[in-house]
Design goal:
Layout: H1 9-18, H2 20-24, H3 29-48, E1 57-67, E2 70-82, E3 85-94, E4 104-115, E5 118-130, E6 133-142, E7 145-152, E8 180-182, H4 192-195, E9 197-202, E10 207-220, E11 230-243, H5 250-256, E12 261-267, E13 273-283, E14 286-297
Antiparallel strand pairs: 1-2, 1-14, 2-3, 3-4, 4-5, 5-6, 6-7, 8-13, 9-10, 10-11, 11-12, 12-13, 13-14
């Protein structure tokens, strides 16, 4: 999995001096963290697409990210599924014009197992760098409850931040595992049943819910032999912060009122599972789109 925040303070500082392209990279901290989660989605999708049996399967995928149509990032992931266990290892980095303003790259790993229709992550680790600033997150989990976690640098200590308590870290998933969804059966992998749910997520600093709702289904056709062809379910999303955030910040209010949040899900092999194919996030500087382009299953 890859989780990085490619748009930082250096991009903001460059806005006035460079012009409109730099402005596309000028995101708030809230938006940058949501951008980071976008990379996790790509890895989550890649981890299971094409897995049809409970045997050792290796999946390699690549993806691209853009803001307002301008390419800003790319990455790759290798995932292994063996029996009821899974592991995901990936990377991401800024690319193209964005590297003129901010140099960012990162790597992350998630491990866990399947229990019935649920994913039960056991560990999540992130190590990324934005220019000279490192971001390190580690989460240990058991049965959906966080046992221990660390995040460096820590969040700032301010009076208006909603405190994170132990109760907030129960019954959660990490950003990677939380965006692979199980369904009632293979027959329920396309349609309303995919979307009508809430994903309880914890990223090491914030606890938030992603409320999914049904927007429609469609068929897509790959533009190359390495792409996906078949049905997709379009889910709209609402972001609801629970703890660790600052409710009065402009960026927090923007994301909670954001109506330009969407995730497309595709069926996974012959399993009652769907995974993210495309992610769309409205930001203050344009629409962010992350979409898997190629994958290889061994």
């Amino acid at each position: 999995m890859v989780l990085i925040a490619p748009f930082g303070r250096s991009a903001i500082a460059s806005q006035k001096a460079v012009g409109p392209q730099a402005k596309l990279l000028c995101q708030t901290k809230t938006e940058r963290r949501i951008t980071s989660a976008a990379f996790a989605l790509a890895a989550a999708w890649a981890a299971l697409v094409g897995v049809e049996q409970a045997q050792a399967t290796e999946v390699k995928a690549s993806f691209r990210m853009s803001i307002a149509g301008i390419p800003v990032g790319k990455g790759g992931v290798t995932a292994t599924v063996k029996g009821r266990n899974y592991s995901i290892d990936g990377y991401a980095k800024t690319s193209g014009v964005s590297r003129m303003f901010v140099d960012s790259k990162g790597r992350a790993v998630s491990k866990g197992r399947f229990k019935g229709e649920k994913l039960m992550p056991s560990s999540y680790a992130l190590n990324s760098r934005e220019n000279k600033i490192r971001n390190v997150v580690q989460i240990a989990m058991r049965s959906g409850n966080v046992k221990d976690f660390t995040a460096s640098p820590p969040v700032s200590k301010v009076k208006d931040r909603i405190p994170l308590k132990r109760v907030h870290t129960r019954g959660i998933v990490d950003p990677l595992s939380g965006l692979i969804l199980s369904t009632k059966s293979v027959k329920h992998r396309v349609g309303k049943s995919v979307c009508n749910r809430t994903v309880r997520m914890f990223d090491g600093r914030w606890r938030y819910n992603i409320e999914l709702y049904y927007k429609g289904t469609k068929n897509v056709k790959a533009s190359s032999k390495d792409g996906y062809t078949g049905p997709v379910t379009r889910c709209g999303a609402r972001l609801r912060f629970v703890a660790g955030h600052r409710p009065n910040k402009k960026s927090t209010k923007f994301m909670e009122n954001n109506k330009d949040l969407e995730a497309w899900f595709v069926p996974v092999g012959n399993e009652p599972v769907v995974a993210v194919y495309r992610l769309q996030i409205g930001t203050m500087v344009g629409r962010l789109v992350l979409q898997a382009k190629r994958w290889q299953v061994n």
